[in-house]
Structures are given as C-alpha cells and as structure tokens.
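Could someone model flavin mononucleotide with this protein?
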Amino acid sequence: MTSEPVLVAYGSTRGGTAEMAEWIGESLRAAGVDAEVRNAREVRSLDGYGAVVLGGALYTGRWHRHARRFARRFARQMRTRPVWLFASGPLDDSLTSGGPEKVPGVKAVERAARRVNAREYTIFGGRLQADAHGFPAAAMAKTMAGDFRDPQHVREWASGLAAELIAGPR
Ligand SMILES: Cc1cc2nc3c(=O)[nH]c(=O)nc-3n(C[C@H](O)[C@H](O)[C@H](O)COP(=O)(O)O)c2cc1C
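Reply:
Sure, complex below.
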C-alpha cells in the first residue's frame, strides 16, 4: 500500500457534496488509510498524494465545474495513480429502484472517468435544502427539497476503496 495520503477533492455549491467528501475521508482514515479532504478548486498539485477520490455535484446535466476542471488539469497525473470518481445528484430514490444510467449528468462523469483512467465512478443521491438560495435552486426547493444522501452507503463505498488500497497494486 502507498504510504502517501489519499486526496479527496470535491466540487460543491451548497455543501452537500463537500460533506460527503468528509464522510469519505473519515471512512478511509478509520480503515487505516491517510486521507486529506480539499475543495477541488484549491488544489494546485497532486505531488505527495498516492491516490485520488474526486467528487462533484450534478447541476443541469453536468458534473460540477470544479470537478471537471480538476479532471482536465490533472488528467496526466491521475492516470498514474489509483483514482475513483463520484457524483451526487438525484433528489429522489431513483438510484435504489434503478441504475444510474438515466441520471442527468452521468455521461459527463463517465467521460471524466475514461479521461483519468478511474478504477470506478459512482453516483450517490443528492441534497437540496428547503431554504436554498439562487435561481433556479430556490424554485426547485419548493417541490424537490430533501436529503437523499445515505451516509452509511457512502462510508461503505469508501471502506471498499481503502481495502483496495491496502491490498496493493492491481
Ligand atoms: C439548479 C439545480 C440543478 C440540478 N441538476 C441536477 C442534475 O442535472 N442531475 C442530478 O442528478 N441532480 C441535479 N441537481 C441536484 C443536485 O445535484 C443536488 O442537490 C446535489 O446534492 C447538490 O450538491 P451540493 O450541495 O454539493 O452543491 C440539481 C440541483 C439544482 C439546485
């Protein structure tokens, strides 16, 4: 296993995805893997990181711009490290009843996964708070507010990554 920390980077507008990144960081550390959680916008280099988890919210069929930019900017370095991607989006239970294929924005995450040679990408439920500000979020919140994130599921996913890292190179 690499002794260098895992970077957990996120693109988040309203804090829901940022909190998921913290859950992932906690879960990795609980499994004995060093991890640092950072806003993707603030990362200047991947030097010193042994692996990367990159997450972003889905907005209007696109992956969060800070996650997209991160994947473009660091594509070359990401391809030489174990990388996992995640997105947070659906404001309903569609993911538990069906697969992620129909989630608006999943194609963008799939493209990024190919670009950076990610081991896996996954889509988690999202969160929209009832008091969300901004257009069109405030209007959407009138009918779609809710928290469809599942902390246990996210933590279990992260434990799986830790197990892969501890097992060593593929
Ligand atoms: C304006 C707007 C557009 C959205 N578009 C999508 C979308 O295309 N696909 C999706 O799955 N979720 C969509 N969502 C749900 C968000 O992805 C979800 O609220 C997410 O958890 C927000 O993350 P954040 O709190 O980190 O910004 C949208 C939400 C808003 C407010």
